[in-house]
Amino acid sequence: MRFSVILPATVSLIAGLGAANATTHIHINLSTQTMHVQSSSGSYSWPVSTARAGYSTPRGSFAPTGMQPMHYSRKYHMSPMPHSIFFRGGYAIHGSYATGMLGQPASHGCVRLSPGHAAMLYQMVQSEGGRISITGAPPRNHYYARAGRGGGVHYASSRGRSYYGSGYAVANPFAALFGGGLF
User: Which of 26, 68, 81, 114 is the S-S candidate for 94 at Cβ 3.0 to 4.6 Å?
Assistant: First the structure.
């Protein structure tokens, strides 16, 4: 009689442990602008873009609150956000077509991945569930503008580039405004 009670309880416990291990663990490091993923399909490390100067990516531990295969940001000019995994209000992990910016802060607060990596992550979280942790501090070499004494605007730069407007790197802001295009 005892055996018939203990065996089902043991099987349930083992099944529960297997389900707990199947959760996709996502760790985002703001300092290195990388994401480390641990799931039943393997371990991955990918470059990401988090919040640029003037914006923030929330730190902490989160569970996915919603998922959309394709979302368009109503807040930021209907920008496409493929394979969105929302984790806090309007914040999401999603694909980005601006893959040249991955590995450095560039977003309004979301965590951006390459479209292929976002699709992989989306599938993992969809089938296994997920836990998200975000730690670190943004790199100190952000590009930003600040008001200086005398009413002028001073642009901080690194590696010979400065950011103007929507995050495009240009060598000559006047050429961008009055002709000559972006470099």
Answer: 81
